[in-house]
Design goal:
It is found in: Cell membrane; Nucleus outer membrane. This is Inositol 1,4,5-trisphosphate receptor-interacting protein. It is a single-pass type I membrane protein. This protein has 537 residues and is of the alpha+beta class. 50% of the residues lie in helices and 11% in strands. It contains 16 helices and 10 strands. Strands 1, 2, 3, 4, 5, 6, 7, 8, 9 and 10 form a 10-stranded mixed beta sheet that branches. Helix 5 crosses helix 9. About 7% of the residues have low confidence.
């Protein structure tokens, strides 16, 4: 028993002596854990320091941003205060400018045809005439009689010959065309300077227009720039021509203007009527994949038809016929065996509704005119109404009135000056437009033959004013004073006036050249007239 107790006590003492917490060894685990804890505490301290620096930087940035915002707010507040001071004066200035602009536009639109009615206005406008020696009445009368009057008989004989041949050629053209598929050609009409008796420059060229219509059951439906909003400012004076079936109501149904769904069907038009083969529309001289008449296709068809017609009747004549100008598809030239030649233009046109306004396929272009918007845009010509207006006014003028004489002299001087210094932006049509304006503005008695000098000066001064302002309005478009006897379409009278000099605003080089040519013509006027005038003692 004592021995057992002794063994138990020995085991307990041995266990107590060997306990690691009471007598730790030098290579124990406690020191190792302490170093790791210290290392982690250092890392944590470093992270806390970096976080503190980051927070300090963010606080500094926020303070800087706040200061910048406060400074900007102060600047805005100051600018608002300054703006408020000037708001009343700015608004007042804008109102005054708008009133002045509205008054200017109203004045131009309401009185653009009254210019040239008073001699005082003409004196103020004629700044370019200072120092210019203007020919007197006797010199002008002699010049007109010797140089211009003698060409009237030549023009009459040439018109008669060209019209007779053109009628024969068109009759042969109708015989070679297929009446069921080709366009139907009507009789030709003479327009322009040769038929208004004021052309002076040689060679004389007759301008003939030939209306045509589509074969049955088709018809033409036209739209002008003043009847719709789909035309840009550069397309003023143009229109489009749509080829439709005669029984088709393009204005009463919207199926041709909007896209219908796959499960929707127009109850007015069947699928056969709304979709036409592309080849069928091309046969009708339309632009590819459209229903709009193509001017280039029309001219190709017309040239081929004229060639076929001439081959049929060429044996009847002792001269040759050919196309003379590549850039003018309707230009023809008759060549006689003697070497002489006669030129004339035969141009297809489309009638606008039931009026004498026509869409012309190709119009004589000048350096001032811009390119056509596209071959589906047709230029409108008012040549028939211009000729009728001159004939109507001539009945109210004194005998041997000088209006045509003034235009002939001015056209002669401008043509001679251009032959010396090169072409300019002015054309004979611009000169004719000036005469039409003055015919309407001046009293009838002012166009007596003895007032040739005064009216010629009026035309030159009016042209100078238009060049200075870059504004020469078309005589018929926007003119509410057109005589009712002409039967002119009201839609064009109510349209906005068309400025023929609008391209001068965009083409500064041509404008400068035109003004220089005009001033040079004024300086050389006496010399040019004396050169072609018999000396008067």
């Amino acid at each position: 028993m004592p021995v057992g107790i002794f063994r138990v006590c020995l085991v307990v003492i041995t266990a107590i002596v060997n306990h690691p917490l009471l007598f730790p060894k030098e290579n124990g685990t406690v020191p190792e854990n302490t170093e790791e804890i210290i290392q982690k505490m250092k890392e944590r301290e470093e992270n806390l320091r970096l976080e503190r620096l980051r927070l300090e930087q963010e606080i500094a940035d926020q303070e800087a941003t706040q200061k910048a915002l406060e400074k900007a707010a102060e600047v805005v507040e100051e600018s608002k205060e300054e703006k408020v001071r000037w708001d009343m004066w700015t608004a007042l200035s804008i109102v005054i400018c708008l009133l002045i602009e509205l008054w200017r536009q109203d004045f131009q639109e309401g009185n653009w045809q009254d210019t040239g009615g008073e001699e005082d206005d003409m004196t103020v406008l004629g700044k370019a005439f200072k120092g210019v020696a203007f020919p007197n009445k006797a010199v002008l009368a002699s010049f007109y009689e010797k140089r211009i009057l003698g060409t009237t008989g030549d023009m009459a004989r040439m018109r008669e010959m060209v019209e007779g041949f053109a009628d024969d050629l068109l009759e042969a053209l109708r015989s070679v065309c297929n009446r069921d598929a080709d366009m139907e050609v009507e009789d030709c009409m003479g327009v322009g300077s040769m038929y208004e008796n004021w052309r002076v420059r040689k060679p004389f060229v007759c301008d003939l227009i030939v209306p045509f219509a589509p074969p049955e059951p088709y018809c033409f439906r036209s739209q002008t720039w003043c009847s719709g909003d789909s035309f840009s400012p550069d397309e003023q004076g143009y229109g489009t021509i749509k080829v439709c079936r005669a029984d088709e109501d393009v204005t009463g149904c919207i199926c041709d203007k909007t896209k219908l769904g796959e499960d929707m069907l127009c109850l007015l038009h069947s699928q056969a009527n709304t979709t036409r083969p592309s080849s069928e529309m091309e046969d009708l001289l339309c632009f590819k994949n459209t229903q709009y008449l193509d001017a280039d296709q029309v001219m190709k068809w017309f040239q081929i038809a004229v060639t076929k017609a001439w081959n049929r009747i060429s044996h009847k004549y002792e001269f040759d016929l050919s196309f003379s100008l590549l850039d003018s598809p309707g230009a023809l030239k008759i060549k006689f065996r003697s070497g002489k030649s006669v030129a004339f233009n035969l141009t297809p046109v489309v009638q606008y509704e039931n009026s004498d306004v026509y869409f012309i396929s190709h119009f004589p272009r000048s350096s001032l005119a811009a390119d056509l918007p596209s071959s589906t845009h047709w230029f409108l010509t008012f040549a028939v109404y211009e000729r009728r207006f001159i004939q109507l006014v001539s009945k109210t003028l004194p005998a041997n009135a000088c209006h045509v004489s003034c235009l002939q002299i001015l056209s002669f001087l401008h043509g001679k000056q251009c032959s010396l210094t090169g072409p300019s932006g002015l054309t004979n049509y611009h000169l004719k437009t000036v005469m039409l304006h003055l015919l309407q503005a001046c009293p009838s008695q002012d166009w007596a033959s003895e007032k040739l000098e005064a009216r010629l000066q009026d035309m030159l001064k009016f042209l100078e004013k238009c060049l200075h302002e870059k504004k020469l309005y078309h005589f018929f478009i926007g003119n509410g004073k057109v005589p009712a006897e002409l039967g002119f379409p009201i839609i064009f009278q109510r349209a906005e006036p068309l400025n023929l000099f609008r391209p001068f605003v965009l083409r500064r080089d041509i404008y400068r050249k035109t003004v220089d040519t005009f001033h040079e013509m004024l300086r050389n006027m006496s010399a040019l007239i004396n050169e072609y005038t018999v000396h008067i003692p």
